Amino acid sequence: MKIYTKTGDKGTTALFGGTRVPKHHLRIESYGTVDELNSYIGLIRDQKIDSNSINVLIKIQNELFTLGAMLATPPEKETLKSGKERLNIPKINIASVEALEIEIDTMNKVLPPMTNFILPGGNQTVSFCHIARCVCRRAERLATALHEDEAINSDVLRYLNRLSDYLFVLARKLSKDLSAKEIPWIPEKEK
Fold first, then answer.
1. Positions in the chain whose pLDDT score sits under 50
2. Residue 109: how many CB atoms within 10 A of its CB?
3. Superfamily of segment(s) 22-74+89-110+119-177
4. Model's pTM, two decimal places?
């Protein structure tokens, strides 16, 4: 497979189904941000963390490729002329969202209750989780903006929302695992 095609040299790219759009199109921004998120999750996975977290992160990375493909397919191109779905892959669905919720609940069982907002940081690996969480929130904002213009699968929005929660709780779990201190946010009092 050739890496360069030269078809994007004039600032456009093709969506699944062949529709060409500007590279700054909201649909491209949406799945491009999901791709950025996937790279940050790979960075977390490359840290010295427990094997269960690594396995969950690999599953999430695979799901993000699926989610990106779903975002790259405009609604009018989801079905081929033959009536078959263009994307012949398992889609992100409510089960994907529920799997994240199970992981969140499992991690929360071993964590102290949260009584304050927590400042991001404390350890490089934990910081990577917080960066990924922020990129995930941006992907969610872009996907919701896209959804206002063109309907997208609502499970995509749910998944991104829950994934940012997962990344926050993973940061807390890794803080505990790595003996990193969680620093609570303490608003400065007015003088």
1. 191
2. 7
3. Cobalamin adenosyltransferase-like (1.20.1200.10)
4. 0.90
